[in-house]
Design goal:
Elements: H1 11-19, H2 37-41, H3 45-48, H4 52-67, E1 75-77, E2 91-94, E3 99-105, H5 116-125, E4 131-135, E5 139-145, E6 153-160, H6 161-165, H7 167-171, H8 176-193, H9 195-208, H10 212-218, H11 225-278, H12 284-297, H13 306-310, E7 314-316, E8 323-325, H14 331-373, H15 383-406, H16 418-430, H17 441-453, H18 457-460, H19 463-466
Parallel strand pairs: 3-4
Antiparallel strand pairs: 1-2, 2-3, 4-5, 5-6, 7-8
Length: 475
């Protein structure tokens, strides 16, 4: 079966193309010719290095915000955060109550720098619910910074815009799996960052924040065909949204894992290359000892300390047990050692950062692998089916908690009626920055698991499903 062409994009991608990509016309400085998206990105970096305002801010980002449902009255452009003149994100997007998210642009020649840009984005998000978008016109990275760990964030959506609409995409067929992944990610991005999400959140909270007596007086029994159909229809909608969120994370994790594996291989090759360029220039008596010392470090690349790498300087040579310091040899040898040391340290640091980045994707992909090993039919081993089961497990866990509370087995209530009133009121009172966006869902779910796990331990403690914690809006 041939790969789908760009004319056969999923509906969500086609919609984005019409709403954003088709509108872009950029005229580089000093030129009187305007270029569309793909042609513009094909221009040399020298023509694009100053395009943050003209191309990224005022065209691409604005068109995306409009696609998400916002109007110009819903955002502030290039304005300092209240009381923080030095913090000036490109867009402060407002929801019904307070800040919905921060949007930060960079010019189209820059790539995301996890160290530099994460620090900047984190600073911009202090005092908000933590939702952020980073964009360079080629990539949209939507994240949420975690309140309990200033160095970590959750990736909500990572969209390869250039891969979908750049020059390469225009001239050749795209991989079907890549299209599926990007379609899922675009859908979840639209769901979690769209205007409706930040406009409806407080209304949804208010709707379910009622005391038990009020709920019981207005509750509709599931004893007629109509009410049962309503219940199943609404449940199906919730399950579809949960499934979409899980599927986006699974597909993104599978893609990222493969990319990170390749990057790990590249770092290992660079480490070996650095050794092979350094060892041959050493005096003969030292070559074997130094190579052995480096090879002993190799299996632990990414876990090494700077001191351990530095200790290659103190080795035994000539078959003796007397340490020989490379720094005691010729100036040329010392210079070569310092160059190797600097390179090796950078490679080890990059490998360490990579391991940190792989932690969550590997947790998800390992859960997927373990789940796959338990399936009796190989045709059932698909991300879509796994995502569906993940969504069902999460949904049923909530139902079980509700049943336990309705039967007064878990007391006092937490997930329903008066219990949810107490939780939402507490969060609103003590975390004003979350108003209209979040209710500390991760903490809330952990508490529910702790309370209900003692009654359904086998159901609330399953590693292959425990990784999934949907966004507060989906919860």
């Amino acid at each position: 079966m041939p790969n789908p062409s760009v004319n056969n994009f999923p509906a969500i991608i086609n919609g984005f193309k019409q709403a954003v990509i088709a509108k872009i016309q950029v005229t580089p400085p000093g030129s009187n010719v305007s270029f569309g998206y793909a042609d513009y990105l094909s221009r040399p970096d020298t023509e694009r290095s100053g395009d943050e305002a003209d191309a990224v801010d005022n065209q691409f980002a604005r068109y995306v915000l409009e696609w998400l449902g916002y109007k110009s009255s819903d955002w502030s452009y290039n304005q300092p955060l209240q009381g923080k003149k030095e913090n000036r994100p490109d867009y402060i997007v407002r929801g019904k109550v307070g800040t919905a998210f921060i949007w930060e642009d960079k010019n189209s020649t820059l790539d995301f720098d996890d160290t530099k840009h994460t620090s900047q984005l984190r600073r911009y998000n202090l005092g908000t619910a933590g939702y952020t978008v980073w964009c360079n016109m080629r990539r949209i990275l939507a994240v949420r910074f975690l309140a309990n760990d200033t160095s970590r964030y959750e990736v909500k959506a990572d969209i390869d815009i250039e891969g979908l609409f750049g020059a390469t995409a225009s001239s050749s067929a795209l991989d079907p799996e890549m299209l599926k992944t990007q379609a899922s990610v675009l859908e979840i991005f639209h769901l979690l960052y769209g205007k409706a999400r930040f406009s409806e959140f407080d209304d949804l909270v208010d709707k379910i924040s009622v005391d038990e007596a009020t709920f019981e007086s207005s509750a509709i029994p599931l004893n007629t065909p109509q009410t049962f159909r309503t219940f199943t229809t609404d449940s199906s909608t919730s399950l579809s949204q949960l499934r979409l969120a899980a599927l986006a994370q699974i597909r993104e994790a599978l893609v990222k894992k493969e990319r990170l594996i390749q990057e790990e291989k590249r770092l290992r090759q660079e480490w070996d290359q650095a050794r092979d360029q350094f060892v041959p220039i050493l005096p003969s008596p030292l070559k074997q000892a130094v190579e052995k010392a480096i090879d002993l470090l190799t299996p632990r690349l990414g876990d090494l300390s700077s001191r351990e790498i530095q200790e290659v300087d103190h080795i035994s040579g000539n078959g003796t047990t007397t340490p020989i310091s490379l720094s005691e040899l010729s100036a040329a040898t010392r210079s070569h050692f310092e160059k190797w040391l600097e390179r090796a340290t950078k490679i080890n640091s990059a490998s360490l950062a990579l391991r940190f980045e792989t932690a969550n994707p590997f947790r998800i992909t390992e859960a997927y692998r373990l789940w796959g090993e338990r399936q009796t039919e190989s045709l059932d081993i698909q991300p879509e089916i796994f995502a569906e089961q993940v969504a069902y497990i999460f949904f049923i866990r909530l139902l079980l908690v509700r049943i336990l509370e309705d039967k007064h087995i878990i007391r006092p209530r937490l997930a329903s009626d008066g219990g949810f009133v107490e939780w939402s009121s507490y969060i609103r009172r003590h975390f004003q920055e979350l108003r209209g966006a979040a209710l500390l869902n991760d903490i809330f779910c952990n508490i529910l698991t702790r309370k209900a796990g003692q009654y359904y331990m086998h159901f609330f403690q399953q590693a292959i499903f425990d990784w999934f914690n949907p966004d507060d809006y989906l919860m």
